[in-house]
Structures are given as structure tokens and as C-alpha cells.
Amino acid sequence: MPVNESETAIYGKKVFFLNPSYTLEQYIIERLRTMEYEVYVLTDYKITKNVFLKNPDSICFINPDAQLTYTGWANFVKSFARNPGLASVKFGAISEKMKANAIDSFKSSLPLEAGFNMHADGEDEETFRFIVKAMDQLKVKGLRQYLRASCKDDKSAEFFWTENTIMHKLKLIDISAVGVAALLPGKNYNILAGKQEISHAVLVLAGKQYSVDVDVKMLKPDGVNFTAVFMFRMNIDKKVLSHIRNYISVSLNKKLFASIEGLPVDRHDYNNEQ
User: Fold this and answer.
1) Quick one: DSSP state of residue 96?
2) How confident is the model over 221-266, as pLDDT tens digits?
3) Is there a contact between 227 and 182 (Cβ–Cβ < 8 Å)?
4) What's the pLDDT tens digit per position in 104-148?
5) Which segments of the chain are extended strands (E)?
6) Domains of the chain, with CATH numbers?
7) 265 membership: H or E segment, kind and range
8) What separation in angstroms does the CA of 88 have from each of 17, 246, 257?
9) Of 1, 82, 41, 39, which Cα lies nearest the Cα of 270?
10) At what angle are helices 70-81 and 100-108 packed, to 10 degrees?
């Protein structure tokens, strides 16, 4: 699959962590998500080629301490260059256990465009800076500032508020960390026409409710209906914002794994490759 350079320029590149350590996942990856990087965790190298054939212009940080031997990981990474559909994937490696005498051999045996890092206890900040620097050098960020997830498959995803004892309820279309878009039936246009803000509205995501204040930014015609765009006000609770980011991450993960469902896994024996 060829890389769509125009889409990459807009949406940026996906970043994958393959079988990351607990520390990396809990203290660093979540922090990257708050910075609006599109980050995914893969727990098995056997599915990665299916993922990257659909997302060829991606960055992947491997954990060479698990699943394969160091030689196996080197063979695995080098095999991507032999497949035209995978050759654009860029790799980095983050190890917690590799001995000093193995590091030079490992680094020299394969291309690591995203670099190599030894992550020791208490050096989370150093590893974090290494990852961000590598992503910046590989131009991971596109023009898009905020990740957005579709809410169309979440039947519970709603936005409602009460005004003059009347509840107004709209179906969510999508959501980001700065706002939501919702479907406004044309017959209900007047409930938002001329309105600039809504206080004490309720956001419903995955069956849970969150209180938010919003500014009404736009009513965009969409056939006989309208797309109503609301921006969260600066007073949004940090815990609510964390829930929203988690919802977005879960939604994007579901979409990613749905795209490879049923595809055969990689059975190649990289450890014993001749």
C-alpha cells in the first residue's frame, strides 16, 4: 500500500509501542497521549505486519527484551525492508535488560531510524525526551492538532442540556479533547440558533455522564440537518478531560484492530532464520 503523503501531512503518523514494559506503558505512553500523539500499544509481534500493511507510514518502538531473541528482533526488523508494503515503517528500540556488550552489536545489525534507548529505573524523563525527540525528527506530528474519534458506533454517545425545564438531547458525531460535534435535526434548529454558550451540559460517553460547559462555535448545514460544533470551555475538569482522551484512545484502538480482524498472523520463526 503506497504512503499517502498528503494525508500524512494532515493527520501525522501513528506511533506504535510493541510489547512495551509496564513502566513505559503506565508512565510514558499515557503522557504522550495527553500531548495528542496518536499512540498505540501492540502486545504480539505476530500481528504487526497486518497492522503496518494498513498503516505503512508509521513509527514502531520495539521492546527487544521479550518474545524474540535479540537476533530474532534484528531479523524481524530487517524483514520489513524486503516487503514494499512495509519498507516505509521506521523502527526504534527501548530496552531495560540488554547488556552493554550486546548493545553495539544490536544497533549495528539493523536500521533504527527512531534510535535506541536504554530505559533504567528512575530515568523515565530521559526516555520520554528520547521518544519525543525521535518523533520530532521523523515528523510524526501533522497539521492536525487534536486526535478525534467517531462516536457513530456508540449508541449511548449523547450531548444534552436542560433549558426552561425542557431537555434538549443530541446524538454525538465525533469528539476530541477540545470539543464535540453533534447531529442537530433541522426541525430543532431554533434551539441553538443565536446561542453562544451552554452551561452545565452533560456529555454521555460509553454510558457514563460528564458535566461540561461549552461554547457553541458553529451550525453547519448537512442536508436537511445541521452539524453542531461545541468547544469545551477552559474550566473543564481535568478528570473529565482524562476520560475523554481515554475514550478517544479506546475508540481508535477498536478501529485499528477491527481493520485486521481475521487476517492470518505471522508464523515466521525469526529466532532461527537462516
Assistant:
1) S
2) 999 999 999 999 999 999 999 999 999 999 999 999 999 999 999 9
3) yes
4) 999 988 889 999 999 988 889 999 999 999 999 999 998 889 999
5) 15-18, 39-42, 59-62, 90-95, 116-118, 148-150, 158-163, 166-176, 179-184, 197-205, 208-222, 225-232
6) 5-145 (3.40.50.2300), 148-236 (2.40.10.220)
7) none
8) 17, 29, 20
9) 82
10) 20
